[in-house]
């Protein structure tokens, strides 16, 4: 019987947001710049260190914690069901000598159905967590790229690149690094979302 805890931990380790963002991060270029008629010599470029953005973005930290809590809950539900099945198997093994052949077959059929149901339940939980992860990955990508488009417009940038060990950007001068500004802006926008609507009325 497989251990769902291991399966779900593997799901969580498949980069909650990280792999998706790092893989598709090259698209983080400011698409608004495509409308610009700037000559190549006038091209304004900047870059972000994606690892730092992922590590310091408060939205991702909150969502990762929520996903981890959800995983632990599902893991416990699975363990409870698995333990119940194991108890039934143990009871059968202890009492099989007192059962008739037809009774033993009936119990075995019932146990086999329970095993199948448990396996299906495990599959459904794993798929559920993968779907949640995919949803988070998409939300993360959209949030970062949408912010970069807005930031790029404000700063007059035509292109924003990502800088990490997997990117094609081999060198970037410190003057082009907008990582900390982007992190600050992302977190400020996220804090605005989390402020209760009524709190803005307190001092009025």
**Number of DSSP helical runs:** 6
Overall geometry comes to rod-shaped
Oligomer: single chain
- Which percent bin holds the helix content? 55-70%
Derived from helix and strand composition plus strand pairing, the structural class reads: mainly alpha
Kindly estimate the percentage of residues that lie in beta strands according to DSSP.
under 5%
**Gyration radius, to the nearest Å?**
26 Å
Distance between the termini: 61 Å
Strand order in the largest sheet: 1-2
Q: Unreliable segments (pLDDT under 50, ≥5 consecutive)?
A: 10-17, 22-38
The main β sheet shows up as: 2 strands, parallel
User: How many strands in all?
Assistant: 2
Mean pLDDT: 81
Tell me what the structure shows.
By secondary structure, the protein is mainly alpha-helical. The protein has helices spanning 4-13, 18-24, 50-56, 58-95, 101-155, 179-194; strands at residues 45-48, 159-162. Helix 1 runs parallel beside helix 5 (101-155), helix 2 (18-24) crosses helix 5 and helix 3 (50-56) packs parallel to helix 6. It starts with a helix and ends in a 10-residue tail after the last helix. Residues 10-17 and 22-38 have low confidence and may be disordered.
């Amino acid at each position: 019987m497989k251990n769902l805890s291991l399966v779900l931990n593997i799901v969580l380790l498949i980069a909650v947001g990280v792999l998706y963002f790092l893989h598709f991060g090259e698209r983080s270029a400011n698409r608004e710049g495509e409308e610009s008629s700037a000559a190549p010599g006038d091209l304004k470029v900047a870059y972000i260190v994606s690892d730092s953005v992922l590590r310091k973005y408060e939205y991702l930290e909150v969502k990762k914690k929520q996903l981890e809590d959800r995983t632990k809950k599902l893991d416990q539900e699975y363990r409870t069901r698995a333990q119940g099945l194991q108890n039934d198997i143990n009871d059968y093994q202890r009492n099989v000598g007192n059962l008739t052949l037809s009774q033993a077959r009936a119990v075995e059929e019932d146990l086999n159905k329970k095993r199948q149901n448990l396996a299906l339940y495990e599959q459904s939980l794993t798929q559920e967590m993968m779907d949640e992860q995919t949803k988070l990955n998409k939300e993360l990508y959209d949030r970062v790229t949408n912010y970069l488009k807005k930031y790029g417009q404000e700063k007059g940038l035509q292109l924003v690149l990502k800088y990490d060990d997997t990117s094609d950007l081999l060198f970037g001068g410190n003057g082009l690094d907008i990582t900390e500004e982007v992190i600050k802006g992302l977190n400020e926008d996220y804090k605005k979302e989390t402020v209760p609507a009524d709190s803005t009325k307190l001092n009025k």
